[in-house]
Amino acid sequence: MAARLLRHEAPGHTLQPTDLVHEAYIKLAGGTAPDWRNRAHFFGIASNTMRRLLVDHARRRKAAKRGGGAAPLRITNEQIGVDLSFDELLALDDALDRLGALDPRLLQVVERRFFGGLTEDEIAESLGVTSRTVQRDWAKARAWLYKELYPTVPS
Amino acid sequence: MSADWRRISELFEGALDQPPENRAAWLAAQPDDPAVRAEVERMLVAHERADGVLDRPVLAPTDAGMLPHLSRALAERYEIEREIGHGGMATVYLARERKHDRLVVLKVLKPDIAAALGAHRFLTEVHVAARLSHPHILGFIDSGEADGLLYYVMPWVGGETLRELLHREGRLQPRAAMAYLCDLAAALRYAHRAGIIHRDLKPENILCVGGHAYLLDFGIAKLRDAPVIRGFTTGTGMAIGTLGYMAPEQASGEPVDHRADIYAWGVLAREMLTGEGPLDIASGLASLPSAIPAEIAALITASLARNPADRPAEAARIVDAFDRWHARGSPIGSGAPALSARRSLPWVAAIAIVAAGFLLTARSDEAPAALAAATTDSAPALRGMPVAVAALENETGDTALSAWGRLAGDWITQGLLETGLVTVVPWPYSLQASERWAARRAAGESADHVATIHEETGAGTVVTGSYYLIGDRLRAQVAITDAATGQLVAAPPPVEAPRDSFDAALRLLRERTMGALAVRTSERLASFPDLTERPPTFAAYRAFDRGISAHLAQDYARAAQAFLDAFERDTTFVVALIYAGYALWNESEFARADSLLATAALHSEELSEYHVLITDHMRAHLAGDGERALRVVRRATEIAPASRAPYHLAVTALMLNRPREARSALTAVNPDRGALRDWPSYWTQLAHAHHLLGDHASELQAAQEMARRHASLRVAHALQVRALAAVGNVAAVDSLMREAAPLPPDTYWSQGAAMVIAAEELRAHGFGAQSDRYFDRAVSWLANQLAREPGHRSHRDWMGLALYGSGRWRDAAPYFESLAADFPDWIDYRGYVALVRARAGNRAAAARLLGETPSHAAGRHTAYRARVAAISGDTTAALALLSQSLRHGIAGLAWLHASAWPDFEPVRESETYARLLGGPAD
């Protein structure tokens, strides 16, 4: 390949000399299916995916609303199986990020139970802990999240 | 995990182990920090709340626990939204297909039925039925077994079932009923000819959308007739309504043929027109409305005959009768079509309009007035938003067929471009956006295909799709999505063909896609004349596809070869020739590029305007006609804003000293998205534009933005140096030079190069002393490098420029002479040798060296002639030549002013010079 020298020279005028050397190569490999290492991994991914889908959906619809669309601002039972306002969902999403920073396992428990719809036993199996631990984690995570989401004035 | 959190966590668990009334006291007795205890206290208060977000599980179990099970089993592919119905055999859900982010109808066989039937038999039957592809049959887009559940999937088109419609309306207006009956007869004719009988035609299996009817569930009834299932259905009792639509022979368990469907059609016809249900048939035939043409009324009555032999022999008879009626102008008594969907939710109506618009392609004479009006009203708002067609996804499992999806995407794009009716994202750039999506997905991001294309290209409407194999047949389907909202707006029926002869299917797919797009964009799309009839051959396209990959990777040598290969395999594939020309142009093979482009231009009547424009643009440059190149590329930018045309517009404008136009072309596009993503030259051109406008602050900013995105690029560093030198900020230049020292080497740019640039620029802006210092530094840095590596091309090049620029032109001569000898085709080296000769007083030798003007570099070449004239004191010729060179367009004009500074000394004060190079021409 001819090197592009002398800055006055711009063959075909589309390229500066450095273009050829530094452009990012666009990968042509097709998408690959996620490689589920095991069932727990699958549940984890699926729950997290569900959360992201819901949150994306809420963001999109809110954006559409701001754009003047007539989108309803609640996700209803009919749409996805939960009655939840977009604002609640987005606030929950934020709080979950903070919870995950504090204690990653609590986040996993909430995602699997709330977004993944798994039972306590299934969560325990998928995380390799006992059901009792899942119960305790759930109670703790729920209390922490509610504290964040619904602050009360101290009496 | 922080120590505080660990302690908070322990205290919370400890408190929960206490009875509720004791918790506060227990907590108060703990020896912890008050802040920690306060946090636990807040959690305990929150713990008592019972109505928070988390107390409402997302997937509430319904239908005896099937939904969560199903959701999990299908989680990878579908997101179940809700149950929308259930019958004796299956439960029906509305679901979102993740891959295409579209709504689909998911039918899941009841677990006991699935168990009795077995997956193999079910899937075999579904595959047989899945071969049906007809505008009025809602086919299967997927089927399978997941965790013991058998399911099949159909596109969701909105609307309502005929049952719901009848329930609400009683009987239908004759015109609406006639439209539905005609659709159903056409669907039956098609299926019967394919040897498939429906066996369960009933209002529940018919969807009415936008004045048209769609038949569902072909092939499914046959499963129910399987001996294993009969026990179940008779045992649990079949819906009594269904029995009424069943032909007498079918109800009594005798063998049935296609005439059973004709019977059911008759029952439906009668019910639609009279409002009387099937059970009334035994009590005598109610008379049909007098508005119904006699011939059709007679066929309806005959269809209801007990004896199959007395019914119309085939559905084709019925269709023929409708055709004759249409040919007479469809006269009917009175009443307007019942456009049921118009009363539905707005978005359902939108789907309905699209669906109907799509059907207009087949029978445009049937456009109801209301529908036509809706179409016209909604179109203009959408017309300006580009349409992008993605590569169809290969689901055949056979990578040898991967190019099909791209051929299809390209072919549809091509067709849209040819119409000139809509703004279209040219193929390489929608492919680039698709590839980006694939890369994001491969990296584990949850990227949406449509959303990614929207973000990358700004497309308002995105066509996606997939194809798969059924036996040795390929089947393809597309979905059309409103990119801004993610809402599916149309899913035309799939097409299919033997895998070795896909041309016809491809044409049909394009026709259907364009028909469906017609309503969103321009209704003329639906029946555009004179589109290229034949897609390129598969072998040719495979080569072309390799070329596009190389093109996007900027490997133009490989791209040129692949494009030429494509053209050789199919000499009607003129577009391949254009891309080959482009690639060769970028490889500096100007003569070959020009000859290919000239050949392509001979076929311009077969090309889309976009392709004609890019051909013209390149040819104009190759002919040295910068002004024409600019005119042409302006139009290309207008019709294809999502391509690289805006960039080419900027480059061309800069060559003609029109930096304002270049600046606005560049600032109108997003360099972090789409066609110019990761395209560092964007910033080079932007910096040039600001530089020519004398806006050195913005110039510096552009160069810094480039450095921020492409930290290792030495050219970004050089551009910053230029901007700082232009304002005499030597301290900042010095510190930049230090910062850049560790950057990786580049084939062209170096520390020495940046020093030369600083020196030239400082001199041009009146900082003579600092300029001299930089020239000296450059010479000593380059001398050092060349001592180690005497043959280094770019060091020799910059050394020559440093010596020439600092007045030591005699010393510069050997560098340019040796470069000119090594690279005889490089006009810049010859140009500098000519300048040196002119300075030595030998203008004739200079003129000889420059010789004839090569048209592909006419501007730059003429600029050397202008410099030679100026050096020789011929100011008139110098200015005339300079003016001429600007009409050709000068590549690298933004550098010229500073590097030719000493040469133009004699003319610099003239008005003409000031007009030509003293400031922007626009």
Provide keyphrases for this structure:
heterodimer; A: 155 residues; mainly alpha; 7 helices; 2 strands; 59% helix; B: 922 residues; alpha+beta; 5-stranded antiparallel sheet; 57% helix
How many individual helices of chain A? Answer: 7
Secondary-structure class of chain B: alpha+beta
Low-confidence stretches of chain B: 59-65, 225-241, 334-383
Q: What portion of the residues of chain B fall into strands of 2 or more residues? A: 5-15%
- Proportion of residues in extended strands of chain A: under 5%
What does this protein look like?
- The complex is a heterodimer of chains A (155) and B (922).
- In chain A, 59% of the residues lie in helices and 3% in strands.
- Chain A has helices at residues 19-22, 39-66, 77-80, 86-102, 104-115, 120-127, 131-149; strands spanning 74-75, 84-85.
- In chain A, helix 2 crosses helix 5 (104-115) and helix 4 (86-102) packs antiparallel against helix 5 (104-115).
- The longest helix of chain A has 28 residues, at 39-66.
- Mean pLDDT of chain A is 62; it is low at 1-39 and 67-82.
- Chain B is α+β, with helices and mostly antiparallel strands.
- In chain B, strands 9, 10, 11, 12, 13 and 14 form a six-stranded mixed β-sheet that branches.
- In chain B, helix 18 crosses helix 21.
- Chain B is globular and about 110 Å long.
- The chains are: A mainly alpha (155), B alpha+beta (922).
- Chains A and B meet through helix 1, helix 2, helix 3, helix 4 and helix 5 of A and helix 1, helix 3, helix 4, strand 1 and strand 10 of B.
Please specify the SSE layout and strand pairing:
The complex is a heterodimer of chains A (155) and B (922).
Chain A: H1 19-22, H2 39-66, E1 74-75, H3 77-80, E2 84-85, H4 86-102, H5 104-115, H6 120-127, H7 131-149
Antiparallel strand pairs in A: 1-2
Helix pairs in contact in A: 2-4, 2-5, 2-6, 4-5, 4-7, 5-7, 6-7
Chain B: H1 3-17, H2 23-28, H3 34-47, H4 66-73, E1 78-86, E2 90-97, E3 102-109, H5 111-117, H6 119-130, E4 142-146, E5 149-155, E6 160-161, H7 162-169, H8 174-193, E7 206-209, E8 212-215, H9 220-224, H10 227-236, H11 240-245, H12 248-251, H13 259-274, H14 294-303, H15 315-327, H16 346-360, H17 369-383, E9 387-389, E10 393-394, H18 402-419, H19 427-442, H20 449-457, E11 461-470, E12 473-482, E13 487-490, E14 495-498, H21 503-520, H22 538-552, H23 556-569, H24 574-586, H25 590-602, H26 609-622, H27 626-639, H28 645-655, H29 659-667, H30 681-692, H31 696-709, H32 714-726, H33 730-740, H34 751-764, H35 768-788, H36 793-805, H37 809-822, H38 827-839, H39 843-850, H40 858-871, H41 875-888, H42 893-899, H43 911-916
Parallel strand pairs in B: 9-11, 10-11
Antiparallel strand pairs in B: 1-2, 2-3, 3-5, 4-5, 6-7, 7-8, 11-12, 12-13, 12-14
